Amino acid sequence: MRFTSVNPHDPADVVGEWEAADGPEVIAVVERASRGADVWRRTPAAARSAALGEAAAALERRAAEVTALVIREVGKPLSEARGEVARGVSILRYYAQLALLPDGETLPAADPDALLMARYRPVGIVALLTPWNFPVAIPLWKAAPSLAYGNATVLKPSSAAAATALLLHEIIAPHLPEGVFQVVLGGAETARPLVDSPDVGAVSFTGSVPVGQDITSRVAARGGRVQAEMGGQNPSIVLADADLDRAAKTVAYAAMGYAGQKCTATSRVIVEEAVYADFVDRLTGAVESLPVVDPAADGTLVGPVIDAGARLAALDAVAASGGRVLTGGEPLDAPGYYLAPTLVELDRPSGPLASDEVFAPVAAVLSADSPARAVAIANAVRFGLVAAVFTSDLGRALRLSANLDAGMIRVNAPTSGVDFHAPFGGAKESSYGPREQGLAARAFYTESRTVLIMP
């Protein structure tokens, strides 16, 4: 089956067309990965570290080329695309150093003359299933630790970001043994044999809840390792003592930047009743000031959504929620898939905008008569990825943070954006399995072996 990737700013611009890999092709990829894994796991840590460092340098040399392709293929604004590529370079360098961490620990044995130790070893072959919205950062924050700790790695990217994945492969693979880093293209028909392969020791997925739940059940059923990041419905709580101007500008970009196409984007803005009217005016003004133009232009902050289906789904969610549109709510008169940044005031926390992930520049605004009620509204969804609290009271921020059902909590900061060296993941339906990124990543990409040596 053939598929194409098109420019969401100009759908007539076809970025590429490819044939999806079928079952036998996926099996061949896994066989090559198995041979590569045998070589790579025996490669000294210093050599693995050097290889990742060389890959980082190669990506840095071609940063402008990768940035231009990200803008063209997924419509990411120039400033964010540049930042994402730079982040990819940093991720590779970070894990190049983590490859040199101690590969185990010694423990006290029952016999004082014996040696008892636990050593980390790679799981073997790792499959990565990644989305289109961060076509550099997400594949690399999965692939870099996988490779650093000695695994052969197979990347199955979203079809909407296939060209970027192939370019990453072109840049990184020459610095690694044959078969250690591969890219396989296609949709569900390609992912299924990869996920189901008994030779694939671990699967890391980022995407929708239904697909993530299907993958976790399939991998777990065969005894494999699996982690899944499945999105969010992220609240920003604005309390009466917050710096309202700062909060309005921060929330506006967290909700609408990159057309709201981040799993960490703000979906709901929950405002304490005492400042509700004032803050909503400021937020509306901040949203209306965001430029929505060609993502390749300097100063663009929003850009298009990925395709016509995403735009239609967002407009359907607005219509089904029954609120009052404060701004936006309409497609823009442009060739691409543009939607005006949209704020919808809801009288009660119900409807799609208050409960479901809407991957578009759309956010709901709700009022709460107290901080406790704001937390209750924030928690009353099936997701729990990230939440933000805006307040000038540190004690209140800490108390609310302790009660929010989210894997990440940010105070006076946007919900969007993560630090690549910090654990990443959510609660409830947002995540399954171990945390990603930072030192936490080793728990997923390695397994320990306890060794006892008697004198």
Approximate helicity band: 25-40%
| Strand coverage percent | 15-25%
Q: What is the average per-residue confidence, as pLDDT, rounded to a whole number? A: 97
What structural class do helix, strand and pairing data support? alpha/beta
Widest β-sheet, arrangement of strands: 12-13-14-11-10-16-17
The gross shape turns out to be: globular
Residue windows where pLDDT falls under 50 for at least 5 positions = none
How many strand elements?
Answer: 20
Give the SSE layout.
Elements: E1 2-7, E2 10-19, H1 23-41, H2 45-61, H3 63-74, H4 78-98, E3 104-107, E4 115-122, E5 125-130, H5 137-148, E6 152-157, H6 162-172, E7 181-183, H7 188-196, E8 202-206, H8 209-221, E9 225-229, E10 234-238, H9 244-256, E11 266-272, H10 276-288, H11 308-321, E12 324-327, E13 342-345, H12 352-355, E14 362-368, H13 371-379, E15 383-384, E16 386-390, H14 394-403, E17 408-411, E18 427-428, E19 431-432, H15 442-445, E20 446-453
Parallel strand pairs: 5-6, 5-8, 6-7, 8-9, 10-11, 10-16, 11-14, 13-14, 16-17
Antiparallel strand pairs: 1-2, 3-4, 4-20, 9-19, 12-13, 15-18
